[in-house]
Amino acid sequence: MNIEKLTDGILAGDYRSIARSISLVENSGYEIKKEIISRIYKNGNAKIIGITGPPGVGKSTLISNLAPLLAEHGKVSVLAIDPASPFSGGSILGNRIRMQANLSEKGIYMRSISNRLYNGGLSEYTWDITKILEASGSDFIILETVGSGQSDIDIMNIADITCVILAPGLGDEIQAIKSGIMEIGDIFIINKIDREGSYFAIKDIRESLNMSNKISTPVIGVNSITGENYDELVNNILKMEKKKGNDKYYKKLKMVIMETIYDYYSNYIDNINYGSRLIERDPYTVAEEILTRDSKKWKMGYNEL
Amino acid sequence: MNIEKLTDGILAGDYRSIARSISLVENSGYEIKKEIISRIYKNGNAKIIGITGPPGVGKSTLISNLAPLLAEHGKVSVLAIDPASPFSGGSILGNRIRMQANLSEKGIYMRSISNRLYNGGLSEYTWDITKILEASGSDFIILETVGSGQSDIDIMNIADITCVILAPGLGDEIQAIKSGIMEIGDIFIINKIDREGSYFAIKDIRESLNMSNKISTPVIGVNSITGENYDELVNNILKMEKKKGNDKYYKKLKMVIMETIYDYYSNYIDNINYGSRLIERDPYTVAEEILTRDSKKWKMGYNEL
């Protein structure tokens, strides 16, 4: 396989090269992934827009509407992280197919990946894929997660702007997770504002934000059928700054470094029969042994340990 | 501070030494924690019983009943991991105070810690504390979590036996998380079996377990007011084996090793101005640099980097 040709294809914005590279990053292990990413690392300058929120608030519909509006201001790509739940699998798939058809008609590239594929490394893979989309010339990358737990919050660290979508009439569960969600949101969107309870939903979110000293965070009520207030949403997204070069930007790159180091040591430990060490020594002592004596033998690929 | 005197106190089962050691493990950093744990690491032989399930199913009441029954077969300690949610904080606290009063009357040591205290290291601290309780002579350690996410599943890896509690009449959310919960449970408890819907709740769980090839996993309906079927629950807990020395046992110790290595590198990276490296080089290249060249400078305490 010619990686150089592939990354040239990415940089030229060739959809087949992009799709092939994403599949390689997903399936081909560390060495190939590293070769792809290191070749394209410095290219591109996209604004990553995270979209998260509980199931049923209309994220797919919102993205189907938002992506073409952003496409008036630059090249748009969409990356959707699908939940692994077997209970919602079918309906999600239907949504995805409709969304992809809708977007590709308008020349917008969309890819969806399952969050079940990865054991703990989901944020890293998500970063790899956004990097490929960025290098391919995307000005905006819309990154969607289902917003149901810590892993989604981790993924949202990759975004420059995190949009949290809620809808009127959701239950107590939302109250319970709100504290976590309130912290990560840069823009709050109340979808389905034609529905009963929308005034109170907006008021409730506004008050929670004010209590969290997030007084200038926008709360925008939209109607995805009529398109009401989408112009306000787009304007807010356009005026917010990218993180590139600031603390948050380096924090997400640190996440990639840490996941690489974690994977290395996890494999390393599995190869040294650590169980026998743990009969005589506590895990802290064993960790120190590994970090000092063993670390000199380090070689990526885990083969010569 | 005299750590040797403290760990002698733990080994003698002195409650003040146990409480003081747990506070030190929680608050005093790596070196003191390591000294305490390494001194007591080989002592004790407890069976750790994890209790998890959604809020409102009656976990605290069940533990208040179960602990004295287990105390007829050996020394019992209870460790409760409290949820951080500000919405349920008040009611949890009330529960804890009643539970602690109830248990201490019967000579059962109980400690509760908040899951908000730790950023990612919760499982490690939980392991440290169970280790102290084990070394103090506990034959049974009951470990309770609120069962609301991945971190609870991680904590349950520390248990020898994981009991999942559910109650009749819970909603769709439970359906959605069931697949994750079904996998970790060694015993399923349906509390409040006097309630309507209990027959179907038991049948539903039984069928889900059968579909997951967990045909021999017990499903026990209990009534925490009358004490019905608690004898069956106790018998099942007594007859299940400990993990000490098997694969699962080493897996949890690997988790402690990995968290130690992770913490070390996370601190290390923050101290090398990694941002400047990331302007020219991708994070995979920087990770490899850190693992090779930099690793020789390793020293616990992160000071001489």
Structure description:
The structure is a homodimer of 305-residue chains. Chain A is α/β, with parallel strands linked by helices and 305 residues long. Helices cover 53% and strands 12% of the residues of chain A. In chain A, strands 3-2-4-1-5-6-7 form a seven-stranded parallel β-sheet, sandwiched between helices. In chain A, helix 1 packs across helix 2 and helix 4 runs parallel beside helix 5. Chain A is globular, with a radius of gyration of 21 Å. The two termini of chain A are 28 Å apart. The C terminus of chain A is likely disordered. Chains A and B meet through helix 3, helix 8, helix 11, helix 12 and helix 13 of A and helix 3, helix 8, helix 11, helix 12 and helix 13 of B.
List keywords for this structure.
globular; 13 helices; 12% strand; 305 residues; alpha/beta
